[in-house]
Please model this.
Amino acid sequence: MKKEYKIEKDDVKNQIKFLASLKGLTLTDLKEEINKRYKKTDSIQNLSNKLRSGTFRVSEFIEIAEILDYEIILREK
Model:
């Protein structure tokens, strides 16, 4: 059975950190993998700020999900 996690708007950073930790990754590891896989040069501080403020793009969230081996599913409430 696949695990599901609901991402809450007010605590995205800690939820992403939790999901990364389940895969044995820190946010730094996650950002390094994003930079490598998607040919980016953003800093960990940039990612951390975006996660804290909730200002990252959907495309960045999709990249994070891909790295962590999750899919994003929208489901009607």
